[in-house]
Every structure is written in structure tokens, then in C-alpha cells.
Amino acid sequence: MRDIGDTLQIMLGEGESNRFSLEGRSYKVIPQAGRGFRLTKEWLQRYYLRTDTSDLVPLSTVIQLDQRVEPNTLNQYQQLNSATIQGMMMPPHALGTGLEFLERSLAEVAPTGFRVGYEGESRRLIQESEDFGLLFASSLVFIFLVLSAQFNSFRDPFVVLVSVPLSIFGAVVPMALGWVTLNIYTQVGLLTLIGLISKHGILIVDFANHRVLEGADRHQAVLDAAALRLRPILMTTFATVLGVVPLLIAVGAGANSRFAIGMMIAAGMTVGTLFTLFVLPSFYLRFFEGRSSGSARPGR
Fold first, then answer.
1. What is the pLDDT of residues 175-219, one digit of tens each?
2. Is 264 found in the same domain as 138?
3. CATH number at residue 39
4. What is the dihedral of CA 98, 103, 109, 114, to 10 degrees?
5. Residue 190 — φ and ψ, nearest 5°?
6. Looking at the structure, do residues 283 and 139 belong to the same domain, yes or no?
7. pTM here?
8. Are strands 18-22 and 56-58 parallel, antiparallel or unpaired?
9. Using the 8-state DSSP alphabet, how is residue 47 labeled?
């Protein structure tokens, strides 16, 4: 194999072996078969190879020609042969939609045993999507523990956190309508909603607990809480929504990222507030049904 390789390298490789000077100029010495002797593959069989006994034999005695299609270069990804697929998403389609389409298409046409890898923005999107669930759950657990310490109870935080899925539903509406996509910026907005919307539940539950301790009926207590805490709840919502208006109307570089965060907060707070005022009192009554009036503990 080495002798065959050396012969082909000399005849076809255009390798420089030396230089010589002529009339003050330097020229390369490149041993190579003439152009007319390397135009077709049949000439490969006519080149001569020197054996161990110094005899010359044509290459046709030791090789067999075959033709097949191969790529010019073999790309590798994580030490495995790979093929790179690149593209640009056109509005209103998002990067996540494109990746889902590619995965479905590859499952139909790719060979058995293939694996999918990601690079660039696609890789960041996949990693962020995988970590977001754990991060969101950790945030809920952290806030639950903080509320448990404040209310000195493990029941009240459950009622307070009912407002979280309600606000998340409101934040998902713009994504369902195609206004924004699930990305790092919308994920930041969703995490922000957990803390913002929890305040509504804290106001209602804390006031209702105080009314119950004063001897009021639990049903009347939660109705009074929803009515008397309506103003601070609406003030918080209006202040938050108005505060993100500059993000919604932003233009220029980075406008899409600011719009995504602002849209999540505005939609989540608006829809979450409307649902919280009606759903949370009902859940409060259902969750604490059967408890005595003196068993409620006020928040600190």
C-alpha cells in the first residue's frame, strides 16, 4: 500500500521536490505525469510500480478501479460523521417551529441509528428549554417555602399560588396567537410573573385570615377580602402593565427581546388578575372547607 501511494503521489500529487535557478529566477521542480497522461481513470492502470525485486509492473496487476459518489469533505460532530443542515426562518415562523419540522423530516428520511445534534442558536434554544422546567419548578418551591414561613402554614401558600397557573395561562395566549415564541426572554417573563402575581393571592388570603380570626364567617371574610383588596390589586396590575409599555413599543436593536419580556408580563398580569379575583376566593373556600374559624392563622 505504501508503494502504491508513493507512486500515485509522484504521478498525480504535484509535490515539490526541489528548486533550480535560471537566469536569476527560481523555479519549482514538480515531478508529475504529463497532462495527457492523467486525464482519465484508465491511465491509473498504466502507471508502473517497482516491486521488491526491482521489476516494473503496471498498477492494473495490483489494483481494481471502482466508481462511487463521496462528499468532498467528511464533517464530524463530537467525533462522529455528520451532515450540517442550515437555514433561515422566515416570519412568522419561529426557530422552534423549524427545529420541530426538521426533526419530523429526519425521522422519515434519515438512516437507522442517526442522532441529532444542535449548534449555535439552535443549541442554546434546546438547552434553555430543557433547563426551564427545572428552573420554574425550583422557583415555585422557593416561593412556597417563603410563603410558608410568612403564613406559618403549609395550606395558605397553596391557595396563594393558585394565581400562578392563571397568570401563566394569560402569558401563553400571545404565544398561541404567534405574537411571541418560547425563548430565553419569554422564559424570563414567565419567571417574573411568579413573584408578581403571587402578591394578589397574598393580599386576599392574608386579609381573609384576619377577618376569620375576628369571628367573621369564612365565606363573608373572603368576599370582604376580594372587595377591600381590589384597589391595591388593580393598582399593582396597572403599575406593572404600564411599566412594561416601553418594552412593548421598543424599536431598534434588541426590540424583539424587550417586546417578548414585556408581552409576557403584560398579558400574564392582566389575565391573571381577572381570574384571580374570581377563582382564588372560590378555591379558598373549597380548600378550607370544614376548618373552624379559629384555626386560620394570620400572615405576618
1. 888 788 777 788 888 888 888 888 888 888 888 888 888 888 888
2. yes
3. 3.30.2090.10
4. 140
5. -65, -40
6. yes
7. 0.58
8. unpaired
9. S
